[in-house]
Amino acid sequence: MSAPASPRSAVHDTHPDFPHETAHLKGTVDAMLRQIDFWEDRDRQMGADLETSIILADEAGEHAAMLSPHVHHPYFGSLKVRVGGREQTLYIGKHGFRDVKGPHSVVGWDSEVGSLFYSDALGWTPRRGGQGTIKRRRQLDIAAKTLHRVTDLYDDEAGGDTGGREEVLLRRLEEGSTAGMRDVVETLQPEQNAAMRHPAGTPVIIQGAAGSGKTTIGFHRLAWMTNAERGPHQAQAGACMVLMPNRVLATYAARILPELGIGPVNVTTPESWAVGLLGLEKLEVTDRTLTLLLTDHDNTRRALAWRRAKLLGDARMLDVVRTHLWNRFNAALRGQSLREEVALNRREPQVFALTDTDLHAILRDVFAADPLSGYRAGFRRAVEALALSHLNVPDDEEAGVLRQLSAPITALLGRVFASTTPVTEARRLLGSPEALAASGLLTEREIALLGTDPLSGIPTPRRAHADATELPLMLAVQAFTGGIGRQDGRTLEPFDHVVLDEAQDYSPLLYALLGRATRPGHLTALGDLNQGMHGYKGPSSWEAVQAVLPGAEVLTLGRTYRSTRQITELGARIAATYNRAAQVQGVDRDGAEVQRYVAPADAPHGELPLIARAVKDAQAAGHVNIAIVTRRAVDADRLAETLRDFDTDAQPITTQEHRFRGGLVVLPVSLAKGLEFSAAIVSSANVQTYDESTEYERRLLYVSASRALHWLALVSAGELHPLIA
Ligand SMILES: Nc1ncnc2c1ncn2[C@@H]1O[C@H](COP(=O)(O)OP(=O)(O)OP(=O)(O)O)[C@@H](O)[C@H]1O
Asked: Whole-prediction pTM value?
């Protein structure tokens, strides 16, 4: 197959409206440039006084900077609509633009009206009332201020649906991959559009097979959420967070942010977020359950480790932790008191005193209020409020009084809360059957299960560490004592919106905690229960997640877009061995046959010459971004080294610190998940590497074989894996 040519490289001018659309484009570009000139002309941004003039000029400068990148490509589609007997054509672009003096306005893709371009609906009720009808939907391929092609997607006068939407989609899917995730604003499909615009303020779980565009849609939903049309639900990009499974993928995905105009969104991993919140940046996060499941052949121990990990992530653990902390703090308060003489202006010094009964009452109120910023801060605020009211402090003396009380209150808080750090307290809870029983939520068998240690045979790192399965418990302690959310200066605020990628790997307990950390209803989860690599950490079903996210709906994306028919079919064969879900429907895009390179098992250099040849073949087919996928990181390092002897220079990506910058890379399957390449080469694609009887290994084989958009090669010294032979 030759390299997929860019659809925008040539002008296709056969459409009868091409000249008219070319003229409209020129008019729009000119109108935008005029507007930018106007904004940039500081002399014309005059207010009543100097200060207002400066503010006006700064605002105008910002508008100009936002519009400038869009002049080369002002819009990508149009809608002909009829409202109240009047026909009108609306142009849809990535950035809204109002042409105050002429007919060249552009409607933003993320507006309510913009949605009509993507949906299949033919009528709608405009905000001003009446009835609107869609007469035509039209795609306009524009680059560098030049119109390249006009494609009608729907035309009332030409019999309705033209099949153009599929045509435009296929053209886009044939493009080569890039070094970052791309936006799909121009070719968003109706079901994706509906998922993306699920009502703001309600949580949503988007379930979809590999390549259905879940991750892409999650980022688009964030961009949509930042539009002012979302009203009270509007989100600020800087107050949003996306959690992705590893940092290589997070950096790859974050490249989509500027295109969507949401640059300040924080894209990170659950581990980084968690250790940051715990204030333990040096803490190493292990996953010893996974190690045990992969290396231990004792089925009883494996089952025990699985069940214990599941229980640690059970949503009930939130209340187990809360009850435990209630008991701990009450015990710590026993015998405590506060007594402090406070100097006041124009009055005799007063004594502020709290007995241990008073302190217990305060604790009860704080637990009942359950503040987002945590019980420690809540306790402090409650004591301060009592002091001010007991002592009748006038407003202008409040700060002074609180300053005097600060040290004694801090000392009291230290005596009550200091001994409960998240790491020690989570472990203390797990080590105490009485503490586990206190809430009455766990059965005796469950308490006994938590008391076992099936992982004792798995080594632990030398430095401070926490296992991925205990981390949610530690976060729960942190959430209750120190608070959970987004640090905004010195205060803790809820996130405006949180997006979770690979959401099938988050435990219900983590969901409950993330639900606390964000504004109510502002959580979007993207996942595929069938792709779960870490079932012991994740929910057994989406219902378990819905139970902790009130009002959450599950939406399903049924189509997959990433790969050619040949690659999709091969992947489906592997997935069918562990996934009983209905067949997914791929886009019918034909590509090169899957290439197979097999050498005898005892070939002198093993599979190395074959991998080198596969790379040359992929490059000869015009592909630039090519991945050689290995089973393990050590294999990738070794391969990068040895392939040099075969005139092949592949960049290794073997740690989370590495970045994918395009070109030829070699990386382990664990870091390849979520990334995609024009061509992929699966090395050691055999049963010695991917054990046929282990479901986890078959899932890994699936991930390896589903990274390519256009061209896939399977390489082995010795027989290929029977699932792909
Ligand atoms: N509407 C669309 N138009 C063009 N390309 C699309 C569209 N939807 C998805 N794609 C492309 O399909 C590929 C897969 O998208 P994405 O990675 O978001 O899927 P995913 O469901 O998150 O996959 P996975 O489960 O494997 O992580 C990407 O190349 C994306 O650009």
From this structure: 0.93
